[in-house]
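Dear colleague,

As promised, here are the two records you asked about, laid out in our usual form so they can be pasted straight into your sheet.

NAME FIELD: protein one
SEQUENCE, THEN STRUCTURE:
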Amino acid sequence: MSTSDTSADAADRPLPQTPDGRATWPWTVAGVVLVVALALLVTWLSEAVPEAAEGTAWSGIAEGVEYPIYAIALGLLGNLVLSATGQRDRLSGAFRTEFFIKTGLVLLGASIDLGVIAGAALPAIIQAIVLVSAVFAFTWWLAGKLGVDQRLRALLASAVSICGVSAAIAAAGAVQARKEQLAYSASLVIVFALPSIFLLPWLATLFGLPPAVAGAWIGGNIDTTAAVSAAGALAGEDALQIATIVKVTQNALMGLVAVALTAYFAFRVERTAGSARPRWADLWHRFPKFVLGFVAASVIATVYLGLVGSAGKAAISDVNALRNFFLTLAFISIGLEFRPGPLREAGWRPVGVFGAATVFNLAVGLGLAALLFQGVATG
């Protein structure tokens, strides 16, 4: 560039880029500012919308709409704006979906009190193991029959059988799923969880279920912790207590499923004909290490609460808030990076699989709850 260039010409030149075409740090900083600003907006919406809807016919729905919906929606809106103005690729260095997800899941471990699980009634542990195994197997089988992509198949089975969005995130890391597949699975979780908040307490009343049975059914079927809390509250305080224990017990199985999926995809799905059998070192290399962080956070939180008692709940609450913020950043980034092509290819089959698995989950969950929690005292 000659020294005769005017300052106006210099201002019109794009900022230099790295050899792989990604924008340099000024654009990355601008992208970070955008993602954080959208996350703060999501946090505000998550609090302001339920408050505004309180006392109206929409209060239940407003309470049930969780932050992933706001985050993905705002991310998609930002995606449209940035794509239309040609700025998305320049800012993409800040869309660190994988980092945000892994950090959020490590922090999620702090909400798993292993003492609660160890001291939980045996029925909660039995129900969690049997129900997760049965629903995962059914979803995996049906998705295979309908020809759903293997990675999306793993996400759907994990989400509907364990703990919704969090399980889908863990499975995505284990099987190296595409971001579009994770966004698709998360959206299905929320869409199906919302009506369940009202449907399950109503059905529990209609069937005349005792509080313990109703709580176990709710905790074992609704796929997000917040939605479980909302539905449990509608069913009564005693039902809420059992629902929370059942859901926490199921959540603890997330790490085991991530390990199993890592091994299955390494030894079966991604192994080509004639290729060498993967070594354990290869398995360790691809294993999502953040799962170990999740387990470590659970152990640390359990020990901490054991030492300080209820006084430590405030600190755990702060960690949970930080976890939600990182996962909000992740879902915003997913929306900003989203490309619709892969989902158009998936068609209706994943929706059908998730819907059928939800019905299967409801039926098996009700049977297990009635069998294991009939006569269990609450309060």
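NAME FIELD: protein two
SEQUENCE, THEN STRUCTURE:
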Amino acid sequence: MNVNLEHQVVAWYQMNRRDLPWRRTGTGAWAVMVSEFMLQQTPVARVLPAYLDWLSRWPAASALADATPADAVRQWGTLGYPRRALRLHEAATIITRWHGGTVPNSIGELRKLPGVGSYTAAAVASFAYGQRHAVLDTNVRRVFARLVFGQQYPASSASAAEQALAESLLPPEPAGRAATWSVALMELGALVCTAARPACGACPVALSCAWLGLGTPAGARPRRAAPYPGSDRECRGRMLAVLRGAPGPVPAAAFDACWPAAAQRGRVLRSLITDGLAVSLPGNLIALPGDFTA
């Protein structure tokens, strides 16, 4: 580990970090886990109000486990990728049933929870329990791509070389140093080493940056998502809004007014059912999961 590099990044972080509730001293593992679920593919500005409302309603895993999946989907609202709400509800149920309501602290047990992959497990273990793990999110991977590999953008998925690099750069014990280093890198990528307009003049490690040293060569841009207007994603959002706004099951015809294309509507409804976000009931009724009496 380059101690000078750690010092520069962490010193910058201490001066420039945002006051985010999930980073405050004393934040419990459940609150950290909720933030990590919500922050997947979603900007901080959108997550903040949803995060605060969620924890106000369900401050512990056991509280969410007592709710229905429909409650979780409704509370998730328009945050996007609503399957995360279902996975979080499933995880809360397992945590309550098998872990006494406490989020497990081992990577192995965390990985067994629905919706928890290698990144989320490392993030919860690091930020909630102060353990020494490499935390490789999109922002960190972009910082490493530029700083070490001299590339404008990282590959679409993390490689073994990236993982090995991240682990080699972890500060030594005490483990809390590694957690601070990881969150500082995340903040550097979010605020300075951004994807579109990096503020290299404000970067604390600009003199060590391989990409800058090479003259900032252009790289292949990450693949962009298909346009949202008219897409199945927009249609899903409209149809879920109908279900969230209803007190219970609705007739399938209730979706007709929210989306004009019948064929697309039918395809999207089938996908919602397949994904577990909707349930088909007798009488041509549709409901959120758990939003009916079996």
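A couple of things worth noting about protein two: Strands lie at 250-251, 279-281, 285-287. The chain has 14 helices and three strands.

Best,
R.
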